[in-house]
Write a structure and sequence with these properties.
The structure is a homodimer of 201-residue chains. Chain A is of the alpha/beta class and 201 residues long. Chain A is built from ten helices and five strands; from the N terminus they run βαβααααβαβααβαα. Chain A has a five-stranded parallel sheet with strand order 2-3-1-4-5, with helices on both faces. In chain A, α7 packs across α8. The longest helix of chain A has 23 residues. The first copy, chain A, is globular and about 45 Å long. About 14% of the residues of chain A have low confidence. At the A-B interface, β4 and β5 of A face β4 and β5 of B. β5 of chain A pairs antiparallel with β5 of chain B, so a sheet runs across the interface.
């Protein structure tokens, strides 16, 4: 039996750090966008899309997908973002088959929604704390941070909406939603860890 | 120093029961709609609205407000729901002045938003669990339960929106949001209690 903790999060909420801490405290693997994209690229999952259109691909696969070089099954053209999503989806399902883990972002809550042992978390915060964190962690100035946060909120909501047909950050897609600005980063990780049945890791 | 735990909740989520449990476990008072309305009625707070329009009122005050018998300050006619809300607001602020407490519903999260020691909780659940709870606790049949739940969601969202200018159930108005269908009633109460600094009760 495994436990899958998916963490959706707002930019500047510290969700990624909380995810890492939870994984560390529970002693289970942690995956985020970079790791999933890398795994997708290395796995060759996406190759089938390309092979279907009889195109030969060398080098960075997702990069090439992003550059518009591939087609979908049956030679129908699939939007490239769909292809990348389908690849990530496969990677996430494969990773979950390996056992308990923490996955940050990538619509993992929706992708694993039928899995037993799933805990769907969403981390958010007020704008003041988000800006302060973006300034501290990403070296932005306050104005840039505010712009990037607003841009990120729109992009994440759009991405989540397209691929899950649900609203990003809507309570019905999560089991636990935490305001990290209220509780702090480490306490949020502790709250999540306490909710996990350690015998099922 | 006091702690105020406000609990917004969906019909059938068990939010009221969770609020009662939290109050019991922490040994602090619990207030909900019935108690607040009764306190408002007994306090005579609303009398000033009536006196302003030189109307004489006897008997159940909020009942009469609801029946369209009163006017606002300076003889301007205020919508009756506004008058009732203002009365509840005063009662909630008075109750909070007495010390730590749990308040369920009545836009208390917004009314006390500038208070130190405020923990704003929202309890929700999936439709299946909500229907099951409404059938069990309110003796409804499944069809009626579903209809009442939908009606209640609309009414609570409308009421909260009018008086707070915010969206009911929107994460930015809460610190902690819990899916009671996932965790269960008693565990939700325990999660909340663990987040309270007992030295500040």
């Amino acid at each position: 039996m495994s436990t899958f903790i998916t963490i959706g999060r707002e930019l500047g909420s510290g969700g990624r750090t909380i995810g890492k801490l939870v994984a560390e405290k529970l002693g289970i693997p942690y995956y985020d966008r970079e790791l999933i994209d890398k795994a997708a690229e290395e796995s060759g999952f996406a190759a089938e899309f390309i092979e279907a259109s009889e195109q030969k691909v060398t080098g960075g696969l997702l990069y090439k997908l992003g550059m518009g070089m591939s087609y979908g099954y049956d030679n129908r053209v699939l939007p490239l973002s769909n292809q990348i999503y389908l690849t990530q989806r496969k990677v996430i399902k494969e990773l979950a088959e390996k056992g308990s883990c923490v996955i940050v972002g990538r619509c993992a809550d929706d992708i694993l929604k039928d899995s037993e042992g799933l805990l769907r978390v969403f981390i958010y915060s007020d704008m003041e704390h988000r800006i302060a964190r973006a300034v501290k962690c990403y070296g932005m100035n306050e104005l840039t941070a505010k712009k990037e946060i607003r841009k990120s909120d729109k992009e994440r909501a759009r991405h989540y909406g397209i691929f899950t047909d649900q609203h990003w950050g809507d309570r019905k897609n999560y089991d636990l939603m935490l305001n990290s600005g209220k509780f702090g980063i480490e306490p949020c990780a502790d709250i999540i860890c306490k909710l996990v049945d350690k015998s099922k890791l």
